[in-house]
Amino acid sequence: MNHLILGPLLLPLLAGALSVLLVNQSLFRQRLLGLTSCLAVTVMSTALIYQSATEPIQVYVLGDWRPPFGIVMVLDRLSAMMILITSLLAFLCLIYAAQETDRQGKNFHALFQFQIMGINGAFLTGDIFNLFVFFEVMLLSSYGLILHGAGRYRTRAGLHYVILNLVGSSIFLVAVGVLYGLLGTLNMADLAVRMTHAPAENAALLKAAGLILFSVFALKAALLPLCFWLPSAYGFTSAPVAALFAVMTKVGVYAILRIYTLIFGDGAGVAANLITPWLMPIALTTLVAGAIGLVAGTDLRQISSYLVLMSVGTLLAVIGTFDMAAIAAAMVYLPHTTFMTAGMFLTADMIDRQRPDAGTGLTPDQPVRQKTLLGFLFLGTAVSIVGLPPLSGFTAKVMMLMTVQSHSAAPWLWALMLAGGLISLIVLGRAGTIIFWKTLPENPLHTSRAISFVHAFPALTLLSISPLLVLLGGPISEFAYATADQITRPAQYVEAVLGLDNAVLLLQSKGG
Amino acid sequence: MELLISACLGVMIACGVYLLLRARTFSVVLGLILMSFAVNFFLFITGRLHTDLPAIISPDRSIYADPLPQALVLTAIVIGFAMTAFVVVLALRAGRELETDHVDGKPEKTQ
Q: Is any Cβ of chain A less than 8 angstroms from the Cβ of B91?
């Protein structure tokens, strides 16, 4: 067994526990520990993504309890990619947080490490109850992080976020209970196999369980009727936390992609293709809602939150085709949109520091002190998010539009994605104009502090990822195609976890 | 027995949802607690309703109680307990900071 698979879980756990012990000591040690751990996890994830690309799906059997009885961790291309995105983003966010945010309260570093552990665990686990547990680890740390630094609005938004997610967790357990009661297993690969042979009399309950699960993942991913917590929660929390949370909605996207291709996919017998009629319409309305929120936004942070909503809508609408090439295009869009929305949160926070009265609000104020730096960051990130050439937003969006052409809903997808792009162009253009050009005369009494290079480094790095995604477009899209191929052929996953015999069972049901 | 248990579950969930939709943080917290009780109870009975079954292997019996739901419900109870404690503290803090216990932080209406 490859013990490296557990690295992205154990190292943040260890670092988080040590940070708790260091809480009353110097902040420097905590920062050093946190950054070292994040960097090490990034290196490990790079190794894992290389392994996932060169080897078949790897399974880590915890305590050597053979599946389906024990808990397994499964490393395939999709989970390796998600872990790399998470750890890289977490490293950059922590550098930003170490400038100031972590001074605003105790235990920031411990919570941050546990957060990474929860997210990575959710990506790696091959057991649906274990997925619930990692969701809870992730959520409990996110409750702490979202409230970090406090303030009236933050507390109010945090209260809504916590209550909604607690209800979500209860509902998740109901769905898991129904699945276990009917199929007698919790291992995701085993669930997939047993689902193919589920008797027709259980069809209604199984479908209900699948759709209840979908509502939980939709809450995590912030799909339309369940998305109203997101703008205030992300808008009022501290910038590095909001930037890290750009990947939290992607946990919901990941779960939808994993569960509904593996367990409720083509070969699921009575519950085959369960959410295919639902996902795309819901995702497209989310996209529209995000665009409407964007137009109404009066604050750059709020606008960034709605950009997250739009990116989730776009991603899931494309995934909703459940077509191999379209999923591959979505896999190219996913890292781009995660890094760019995170970059926008950090840029907005830096702009906030240099505008004494208006902050991130879209009202005229004195010019920012470092016009070139902030202007460059804002322009670059905005161009990339909107999807203008030459940055990665353009290539990813073109790839998505090209791959959905043959789908029957292509006119809707094209129209709404392009209109969404146009609206975000207008809104970000307007925001940039007000912040950088429509300025009041400079008041020498108000001098804001300059932003150091280290402070701007995370946002600059996030922005530089965008041209990199274009330059490395060939290998990345090859990887994305192989990932999509792996996702759309769940028999490979089942074979890796349960052996060849069970995979054959799955394939037979698909044919017959 | 089945009827009694499903009725209990239904009443608990209904009360939980009703309390959850109230405007005061205290009743919302109570609603969350009731919901998590109901869900734990539901998880527990996914192992089916039996009486007098051995939990571990005994030579003279052929069927056993399913141990997994018991393990699951234990995990769920622990997590639910931690979450409840957290939400109580958060509700207290929100009450202090927003100077009202309304979930949207709206000021009290003066009569």
A: yes
- Specify the number of domains making up chain A: 1
Domain presence at residue A253: no
A59 sits in which H/E element: strand A58-61
What's the complex ipTM? Answer: 0.91
Tell me the two tokens of residue A468. Answer: 């990199």
Q: Which of A136, A155, A173 sits opposite B43 (nearest CB)?
A: A173
- The answer to whether the beta carbons of residues A127 and A180 sit under 8 Å apart is no
Backbone torsion region of residue A135, taken as left when φ is above 0, otherwise alpha when ψ lies between -120 and 50, otherwise beta: alpha
Mutate to test the interface with A, among B15, B24, B97 (most CBs of A within 10 A): B97
Express each pLDDT in B58-80 by its tens digit. Answer: 777 777 788 888 888 999 999 88
Nearest to B9 by CA among B48, B36, B47, B49: B36
Buried b (16+ CB within 10 A) or exposed e, A259-277: bbbbbbbbbbbbbeebbee
**Quick check: is A285 in a domain?**
yes
Q: Which domains does chain B have, with CATH numbers?
A: 2-50+65-98 (1.10.287)
What count of other Cβ atoms lies within 10 Å of the Cβ of residue A51? 15
Let me know if residue A280 belongs to a domain: yes
The arithmetic mean of pLDDT across residues A92-102, rounded, is: 89
The answer to the question of residue A150 being in a domain is no
Determine, for residues A170 and B36 on separate chains, whether the beta-carbon distance falls below 8 Å.
yes
CA distances from B42 to A79, A213, B70, B74, B76 (A): 31, 16, 11, 13, 11
Residue of A nearest to B40 (CA): A173
- Range of the structural domain that residue A334 is part of: 275-471
Which of B17, B30, B32 best tests the A interface by mutation, with the highest count of A CBs <10 A?
A: B32
Could you read off the pLDDT of A439-464 as tens digits, one per residue?
888 777 777 778 888 888 999 999 99
